[in-house]
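Structure tokens please, single chain.
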Amino acid sequence: LISMDINRRACHFAMANACLNGLFANEDICNNQIYSVEANLYVPLSCDPKEDGWHHIGKFNTILCNPPFVAVPYANIDCLAPALYSAGGGHDGMDLLQRILKECFNIMHGGDDGSLLMVTELPNIESSCGLLQSFLSANGRVRIAYIEDDVELTEDYAKEREMEVGFEVSSRDWNPSDLIRNRALALISISKSESP
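Here you go.
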């Protein structure tokens, strides 16, 4: 099991959690069941960014992720910076989601074994399968599960985010497109296999 995060502190907490749950065998790192790697998505930070970092971490049967997904306004406001770092997914909430999906097949085992499971927030949830399919670098199967009662209209979503930061963002642009009607938390399953 390899956990990866761009934040060194998150990597340390992953290992602490592994110790608390008996996954860290002993001080002999070769016998451990879990490793934590500082990485920018799939490329370890210790790699030369010009090289193909995927060769450094191998291929996986399953990828689990919960990337930052909160849509944030274009407004350049200093007090929003911490929220942007920890929960900000860009103006539409999908900056990292797009990169994850575009690159996932590069480190996923082939055949029916390879899959990616993700918890994230999606715009226009009722039609998001096609959108996610467009982000993939190859054909794959996209499945989405969400709770219908959790779907928020964009205006309600904006008000909730403003309450979280403690003030109204004047001239905000929470909805970068009039085409985004709603947002919802979803579980996404991506696999290479196109078979049902």
